[in-house]
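This week, study the protein below.
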Amino acid sequence: MIDKELLSILACPETYQPLAEAQEAQVAEVNQRIAERSAVNAGGETVEEPIQGGLVREDGKILYPIREGIPVLLIEEGIVLSGK
């Protein structure tokens, strides 16, 4: 979904850790949590809009959503992954 060259230069805006494209299972899990209204972003707000994909921080704690083909790399928009 994301160009590999672009992905190689993207980093978490908060920690500067590398990002990797989310696996389909991670996207499905986040979308399930969004449907259940239990997905929360780093800003503390409930995420309401399903995601098309995502970029996962190297430590696996945050997923930055991809919406309309564009990665949303804003600290407060990062979705907290469950169990992290």
